Amino acid sequence: MVLPIYIYGSTVLKRKAEQLTPDYPELRQLISDMRETLANADGVGLAAPQVGHSIRLFITDGAPFKDKNPELATFQRVMINAEILEYSKETWTFNEGCLSVPDIHEDVVRPVKIRVCYLDENFTEHDEWLDGIAARIVLHEYDHIEGSIFTEKLSPIRRKMISGKLKNMARGKASANYKTKLEA
Q1: In angstroms, how far apart are the furthest CA atoms of the chain?
Q2: How confident is the model at residue 128 (pLDDT cuts 50, 70, 90)?
Q3: 13 vs 6: CA distance, rounded Å
Q4: Would you call 152 a catalytic residue per the annotation?
Q5: Mean of pLDDT values over 43-50
Q6: Which domains does the chain have, with CATH numbers?
Q7: Per-residue DSSP letters for the chain?
Q8: pLDDT for residue 89 is more than 70
Q9: Distance CA 38, CA 50 (A)
Q10: How do residues 146-171 score in pLDDT, each as one tens digit?
Q11: How far apart are CA 1 and CA 107, in angstroms?
Q12: Are the C-beta atoms of 112 and 126 separated by less than 8 Å?
């Protein structure tokens, strides 16, 4: 089932998400619904807070980048209770967007490489080094489970330049080609 995506201004996006346990109700269905929602919205990542669940769960799908980065064709992950263990000192800038902030894209500086520990949908532990776009996708979604969005990483001048759009979004004035929702 395609779920509505909560947009900027929704309180669920500002809360640090709770740890997830294997007995979370309907977890497999939620993951399935998140995959369908992500595909419907043409995104590369989706965190549970973006669909109204304040839990430490996100999914990734790097396939849209496969033309320039063939290794991303299979970068589909379910990450539960993820923790970033290490960051590279080297950073790079890339133009990011967010399904919860439709029609806004900005350059964001992030580490080139990260080490992340997480549980998959079977609660099997993984410890991976990721770099480039894969690391960026994970860092962007990780921000969501920490109660942050990419616009908070922008310089004060860039935030000011998009503040009108963000205020309108927080009032429910957003345009997207997928279902959205604003939760006060």
Answers
A1: 45
A2: very high
A3: 8
A4: no
A5: 98
A6: 5-181 (3.90.45.10)
A7: -PPPEEPTT-GGGTSPPBP--TT-TTHHHHHHHHHHHHHHHT-SEEEGGGGT--BSEEEEE-GGGTTT-GGGGG-EEEEEEEEEEEE-S-EEEEEEEETTEEEEEEEEEEESEEEEEEE-TT--EEEEEEEHHHHHHHHHHHHHHTT--GGGGS-HHHHHHHHHHHHHHHTT----SS-EE---
A8: yes
A9: 11
A10: 999 999 999 999 999 999 999 999 99
A11: 32
A12: no
Compute the radius of gyration of the chain from its Cα atoms.
16
How far is CA 73 from each of CA 37, 76, 80, 82, 104, rounded to the nearest angstrom? 19, 8, 21, 22, 25
- Beta partners for residue 159, in sequence order: none
Distance of alpha carbon 96 from alpha carbon 22, whole angstroms: 32
Instruction: Report whether 57 contacts 79 (CB < 8 A).
Output: yes
Q: Among residues 141, 146, 152, 183, which one is catalytic?
A: 141
CB atoms within 10 A of CB 104: 18
Mean pLDDT of 52-72: 96
Mean pLDDT across 122-147: 98
